[in-house]
Structures are given as C-alpha cells and as structure tokens.
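Example (one chain per record):
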Amino acid sequence: MKSKQLVEEWFDKWRSGDFIMLPVSENFKHTSPFGVIEGKTAYLDLVKENKDKFLGYTFEIHDGIYGVNKACVRYTARQGHEFSLDVSEWYYINNDLIEAIVSYYHIGDIREERKLKGS
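Predicted structure:
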C-alpha cells in the first residue's frame, strides 16, 4: 500500500470513530508533546479511556509529502467550535502498516519569558 493511501485510511478511521481498526502495527509507537506511547494495545487503551479527547474531530489537510516508507502531513484538527489544533506529523511505514508517528503541535500557552518582544 502506498503511503498516501495508508495516511488517508488513518484519517478516515478517525473521522468515522473506528479507531480500533487503525492501520497500525502491533509495535506501533506514537510520540507527541504528551510523551511516547509504545504498542498498539497501549495506544488503543489510551484512546478508549479518553474518547472525549480523541474522537469527534474534523481534519483540514494543508500539505502532505509522501515517500515510499514515510510521509509528512500538516493539518488542522477541529473538535466542535471551540477547539482547534495545528499539527505536523511524520508517519513511518513498514509492511503496509503505520509503525510510528511523530506528532508536533503546541499544547499550551507560551511562557512569558519565551514571548517575542515588540509583537
């Protein structure tokens, strides 16, 4: 399966709420600002426990770069009218399954000492 098709399937499963059927390997690893989750079972268990934070999103895909065994996608995820998150993710593929995702996004306010002067 080509990387673009696999990434599209990933987003389709999230849109439909069918996260149990995500196209990920048994040793799937997800890295984000919240930390690292190792293993498909651990990832799915976390989603089950936090469905209110994982489900019900719409996705606006802005850009995608698709290679043989990896892809990078930049998108905006929206949950309802009040929550929006700009994300860039790298997807690493092995044997037609997503083996790892490294996700980049901002999860909080900018500390006062990190704010730019004059803006």
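Caption: The radius of gyration is 15 Å.
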